[in-house]
Specification:
Elements (H helix, E strand, L loop, with lengths): L2 H24 L2 E5 L2 E5 L1 H24 L2 H21 L2 E5 L4 E5 L1 H25 L5 H25 L4 H4 L5 H11 L2 H9 L1 H5 L2 H15 L2 E8 L5 E6 L5 E6 L4 E5 L5 E5 L6 E6 L5 E6 L4 E5 L4 E6 L12 E6 L5 E6 L3 E6 L5 E6 L5 E6 L5 E6 L4 E5 L4 E6 L6 E6 L5 E6 L4 E5 L4 E6 L6 E6 L5 E6 L3 E6 L4 E7 L1 E6 L5 E5 L4 E7 L11 H5 L7 H15 L9 H21 L1
Helix pairs in contact: 1-2, 1-4, 2-3, 2-4, 2-5, 3-4, 5-8, 12-13
Length: 583
């Protein structure tokens, strides 16, 4: 191919990439007119970009060579555009995502037709120079195949990163998310995958990196849903004892109730005058409470959705003298503990709202509080870098742990009541023996402040969230990281341990579902094998199937059980499809 044909190919390639960029930035676009409305996808935009590139090349060749054929091509195209406008009638572009809508009249249609004519001229010149015996239609078909191939690899990359692009970039939080993507996968490798898919597909180095990333993200936990939950940052989460619903508290001053299976919003509890910093659900599942920047604790009856009361401290119109940062129920549901920036922990009678006891000892803000399952131990932590363990019946301090070197943000106690976990801004997680008061181990792995910790119901697994958007899942006994996920504080495990929820960016909540350690069970109901809920939507099931097929296909997974797993996955999906068709 000579230099001229290389230049022509460059024009077309640039146009194609520009079309893809516009589609990505603008989002969903439609063409509306008297004929109705149709959507315009990424492929169409890329093809239009290719056409524009060919037209520019045609213009350059026509001008430099003074070829009258280029003028004829423009005139024929313009005439065709006018004819199309008169036949179709009024027409317009709409882009709801960016609030764009404008009409296209006869003159713009003539211009579009002229561009098409000029593009045809440019392609004909490119064919003459390339010495390839292809018709313009064959060239367009070849271009379309490349466009589709590129779109496929773009979609594949997003799947490998386990992100839903529409939800991931919600509220235009693009810059922050790009930084996270760069941390996961070298940005140059991403660009190479997008711009040269055929070459990358056969590249061992890129393939190895991509597969290891896939296994890392999808080995034990799979993000099944990301929901736009609040208008502000999500500060608190609590899962109902039945594992079917959960509540969230946010900077938008609302507490919301959600279906944990499908992420559906069920109800909004309003009443706090400022940002909600803490939430909790009673052990019997009948009452919820929230703590706020407005210095109050509020409660609602969950079944009736009725406001219950505000907890007042003695004759004060507030629950605390400053922010309420943490809340916890005793296992019998009779006592509520609250932690505040006013340096105190207060114990309340849950049914009457009366203060039972005031615990003092911290010299700065108390940020976290937790009660052991047997109701005998309360632990608190805060800005003074200490973790304090209290005898709950007497209100006396048993131990003060001072090993952390920075603010302690998070606490959790295992279900057997023997182990206390603390997470700190010093990036460390410490494991304490509540029987001896000794430090058992320090978990080192985060590179930013640890803001939340949650213990799996089996007592063997720990999840921790740090300020940089990294969640680590640990084997508590071995002190090793089992898996690294993406997400922010707060986080919580469901009672059965099959679901982990956490905060995302810009008011979102991510719902993760556990997979078996070696992938998925080879027997069971179709939804168990695919790792979804029985009532999952068709799109959710399809997405789960595609991810698993990509992960376990023998062509890319050489593990011993990959073939058996993919057979089970295929069979499960077939059963689902048959049931879906018959329903």
């Amino acid at each position: 191919m000579n230099s001229n044909s290389s230049t022509g190919a460059a024009f077309i390639t640039t146009g194609t990439l520009t079309g893809a960029g516009i589609s990505s930035a603008v989002g969903g676009i439609g063409l509306a007119g008297s004929f109705g409305a149709v959507g315009i996808g990424t492929t169409t935009f890329m093809a239009a970009g290719s056409l524009a590139g060919a037209a520019v090349y045609g213009a350059v060749k026509g001008i430099t060579e003074g070829d009258a054929a280029s003028v004829v091509a423009i005139a024929v195209g313009a005439f065709g555009g006018v004819g199309c406008a008169s036949f179709v009638g009024s027409i317009g572009f709409v882009a709801p995502k960016v609030g764009l809508a404008f009409g296209i009249g006869t003159v713009p249609m003539a211009g579009i037709g002229a561009m098409v004519g000029l593009a045809a001229y440019g392609i004909s010149k490119l064919l003459d120079e390339s010495q390839f015996m292809e018709t313009p239609m064959q060239v367009f078909e070849r271009m379309e195949a490349k466009v589709l191939d590129r779109e496929y690899y773009s979609a594949a990359l997003m799947e490998l990163l386990d992100e839903d692009i529409e939800q991931k970039f919600v509220a235009l939080a693009v810059e922050e998310e790009l930084e996270n993507l760069k941390a996961k996968l070298n940005i140059d490798a991403v660009a190479q995958v997008l711009t040269n898919p055929v070459k990358v597909k056969s590249s061992p180095s890129i393939q190895t990196e991509t597969l290891s990333l896939t296994n890392q993200i999808s080995r034990r936990w799979q993000c099944i849903k990301t929901i736009k939950a609040h208008r502000g940052q999500v500060n608190a989460l609590a899962i109902h004892p039945n594992g079917k619903t959960f509540i969230s508290g946010s900077d938008d001053r609302e507490v919301r109730l959600w279906d944990i299976t499908n992420g559906k919003w069920l109800y909004t509890f309003s009443g706090q005058a400022a940002a909600v910093l803490a939430v909790a659900i009673s052990p019997d599942g009948k009452q919820i409470i929230s703590g706020s920047v407005d210095r109050t604790i509020s409660s609602w009856q969950l079944e009736s959705k009725q406001f219950h009361r505000t907890f007042f401290y003695l004759n004060s119109p507030y629950s605390h003298n400053s922010f309420v940062n943490g809340l916890a129920y005793s296992d019998d549901g009779k006592i509520i503990a609250s932690a505040s920036t006013d340096h105190t922990i207060r114990l309340w009678k849950s049914q009457t709202g009366q203060v039972k006891q005031n615990l003092t000892g911290h010299s700065e803000a108390v940020l976290a509080v937790v009660i052991s399952p047997d109701g005998r131990v309360l632990a608190s932590a805060g800005q003074d870098k200490t973790v304090r363990v209290w005898n709950l019946p007497t209100g006396k301090q048993q131990w003060i742990f001072t090993e952390h070197t920075d603010t302690v943000h998070a606490l959790a106690i295992t279900s057997n009541g023997q182990t206390l976990i603390s997470g700190s801004a010093d990036t460390n997680i410490k494991v304490w023996n509540l029987t001896t008061g000794k430090l058992d181990q320090t978990l080192i792995g985060h590179s930013a402040a640890v803001l939340s910790v949650a213990i799996h119901p089996n007592g063997e697994m720990l999840a921790s969230a740090s300020q940089d958007g990294v969640i680590k899942v640990w084997n508590l006994y071995r002190g090793e990281v089992m898996e690294t996920l993406t997400g922010f504080s707060p986080l919580a495990f469901s009672p059965d341990g099959k679901v982990l929820i956490c905060s995302g960016v810009s008011g979102t909540i991510k719902i993760w579902r556990a997979l078996q350690q070696d992938g998925l069970p080879l027997t069971g109901e179709w939804w168990e094998i695919l790792g979804v809920e029985p009532n999952a939507t068709f799109e959710d099931v399809k997405q789960a199937y595609r991810r698993l097929a990509r992960l376990y296909h023998p062509d890319i997974n050489n593990s011993a059980n990959a073939k058996a797993v993919i057979q089970a996955v295929n069979h499960a999906y077939q059963v689902f499809q048959e049931q879906f068709k018959s329903s």
